[in-house]
Amino acid sequence: MCKENLGENVMEDICSKLQEIKNPIQAIGLLVREMDYETEVEMEKGFNPAQPLNIRMNLSQLYGSNTAACIVCRGVCKIASTRFLICRDLLILQHLLMRLGDAVILGAGQLIQDQQDLLHRTTPLLLSYYLIKWGSQCLATDVPVDTLESNLQHLSVLELTDSGAVMANKFVSSPQTIVELFFQEVARKHIISHLFSQPKAPLSQTGLNWPEMITATTNYLLQLLWPSNPGCLFLECLMGNCQYVQLQDYIQLLRPWCQVNVGSCRFMLGRCYLVTGEGQKALDCFRHAASEVGKEEFLDRLIRSEDGEIVSTPKMQYYDKVLRLLDVVGLPELVIQLASSILTEVGGDWKSQATLRTCIFKHHLDLGHNSQAYEALTQIPDSSRQLDCLRQLVVVLCERSQLQDLVEFPYVNLHNEVVAIIESRARAVDLMTHNYYELLYAFHVFRHNYRKAGTVMFEYGMRLGREVRTLRGLEKQGNCYLAAVNCLRLIRPEYAWIVHPASGAVYDRPGASPKRNHDGECTAAPTNRQIEILELGDLEKECSLARIRLTLAQHDPSAVAVAGSSSAEEMVSLLVQAGLFDTAISLCQTFKLPLTPVFEGLAFKCIKLQLGGEAAHADAWSWLAANQLSSVITTKESSATDEAWRLLSTYLERYKVQNNLYHHCVINKLLSHGVPLPNWLINSYKKVDAAELLRLYLNYDLLEEAVDLVSEYVDAVLGKGHQYFGIEFPLSATAPMVWLPYSSIDQLLQALGENSANSHNIALSQKILDKLEDYQQKVDKATRDLLYRRNL
């Protein structure tokens, strides 16, 4: 009962005081308007050049001190606290007026709508002063240097580092409120600039009036802090100085009632969530902020970019900044999620679609989502971007050794492009470090394109021979040719062939620079290109040649440098030099080459052994062992020289040709070096071509040997030792005709007669003449017997 009586007394007192004011609503309105700092004042003007330099410098030093900042900010705090209480009381008063009604206080004609409008103005005023009071009491946080540097990197992505509101101070004096931080970092420069630009400001007077100056300063600071003003300098300052907790609290206090800078607050709140690791919340904030792009000053400044990609709409420019921010922060999942949601908004804008799908592809690939990356790749509408992404997919999966995925992707409408990319990479990188050729081989085999696979491996083998001059390179070359052969064996015979540039043809590598003449002009491309068709048999020959190269390199490591790209003819010479005669003969038979170099080389080695010392004999056993002799005799009676001659004899017996070419080349090699012919070689050649042996004697002026050969040959024709000359039937009336090399014998007689003073030559000449006379007598007798038999 007492409390009710007290309340009624208070109400009566208020009513009596309000009746003394003719129009209380108008008075309250005037008071509210005076306390409202919502304004459109521009505070970006420069200094007035009319002011003396010393005044400008002194004022800047004055307001740049910690003491001045403390005085101004405490004044703002005091003003905000006092006016907060005033606004609270005014709000209570207005509610009391609403309860009392129009008839009691307001009088006739006063509308209740005025009261409601006044309430709607007073409430934001109360909340605004509360926020300023809260900020004046909230302490700033010391920030580590690495956090500041990370924040600066993020701001550089947003291209906000040139804004004065985001310049972070590494040294924060503590304790310091966030309003003091804002004044020192941002507001002070704007306020001084504004004071100099105002003609009626205290600075324009002759003397500086401190009360007026401090009043103007606090008023301008209140304007910059006022939540309903369009600028976001205070929020930007908190964001730039890494005051994320304070910024979140401020926005949480501001968001329920303030409809100004809604999108900017959402964006900055998203930045806070990114720092605190709440990525999904940050993404939601960024999405909601997108609806305010083009309506707020901060967001307009955010999308304003001097460089960078030009996208179609301001909203897409905003999304581009957000995607780049998420990328720098290291949240690829959120980038994919945001880009996928933006795709529904771009509609038919193919450029934006290409940008977004490229972004989705890149981050799926970074995360190792190979299938999703390929799917995004196939949906890129821009062919050039698609080709770039395809190239990136190939390179990245190769580096990760995820070749199965790379091979098994279907590549619908991209088959030729991916083949061209892999071929280009294969021809541009080191053969022993990267395996692009093997990848391309697997790619074609997976699609049953065996001819292409064989072509790839053949090219791989050719390049290994030219560029990788090591034992490992020769091993891989042999495997490549073997794989190429296997590929062609899987094809029907009529299609078992490949094409490759022939020797001397122009081979253009993708991406290679054009050839130029002396004047720098590009030379014209050749009109006709040579190509060579290789069938299965040709590849089998190359495979055999590759195995022989490896055999040579294993036997003689010094030959590795030249063996890889050597032709079959060159390889025969290298094998002969190394003493691998069996292998050289096998190579000659494979490529249908004459064995002459083999026999000449072996004959020369025999000469060296016969004329050489013990060192030559010691080295000879290694290459002799590499050839398949029927039995190698290593007794004291048998030397390396004997085994070499026996190997030569075996080859001459085994590899016989028409005209006995190999005997001829061996004897010619021996005689050219002045080495006496072994008896076994003379006897062997007498059986096959005694006349040619006689001519060789004459060529090297071996007259005595020639005379002995003629004498033996005549005896053989007459029946004495005919089996040693390969004569089946000697001279007789019933046997087939026989003959003598008269031309060579005449040359021998002429050579002997040239030096008539030499008695030995005369004796040799007489010996031949006697043999010929005896031969003529027996020929006459055989002829008469033959004629007699015919006449019977």
TrEMBL record:
InterPro entries: Nucleoporin_Nup160 (IPR021717), NUP160_helical (IPR056547), TPR_NUP160_C (IPR056536), TPR_NUP160_M (IPR056535). Coiled coil: none annotated. Pfam families: NUP160_helical (PF23345), TPR_NUP160_120_M (PF23354), TPR_Nup160_C (PF23347). Residues 8-182 form the NUP160 helical domain. It comes from the Eukaryota. GO terms for molecular function: structural constituent of nuclear pore. Residues 535-792 form the NUP160 C-terminal TPR domain. This is Nuclear pore complex protein Nup160. The lineage of its organism: Eukaryota, Metazoa, Chordata, Craniata, Vertebrata.
